[in-house]
Here is the input.
Amino acid sequence: MSNNQVQQTLSELNNLPLSQFISEMASICTSKTWQQQLASLRPFQSPEHCYQMAIQAFSQLTEQDWLEAFAGHPMIGDLSSLQKKYSQGKNLSQAEQAQVADAQQTTLNALLKLNQDYLRRYGFIFIVCASGKSAEQMVHLLQQRYGQSRQQELITAAEQQQQISLIRMENLF
Here is the structure.
């Protein structure tokens, strides 16, 4: 993207009415608090400044805000939820989980079972930045993280949520 296009995008983001800005940010992260916080930090001087303000907004989130953000994601491996339940951010999630879609059915079944076990244990879905990861890698990551305490897993999931959101923000520019 040229510098003029980046400046135009920044200008558009800075000048969007609040409701439109919130709607635009909802495809990046579904935490309403994060969306409101980020809106209050406008105007953005550069894409880097926008990312810094996004991180600052993330630092203000409570557990409930994080859970709201997690709820905006389809369960990794549950491809039917991508098609049926989650219209917001659907295309982004599909692209992020592209390698999972190509996995063997047995691996997908294992991934779904582990995700269901994880949800029962922690009370929220497994959040991981799936870009570039195979279904087998996801199974391994789930197995690794499953032994953590709920508090540690909440922190890890929040870090992953930030990473996903920042990647999604890059698409704006």
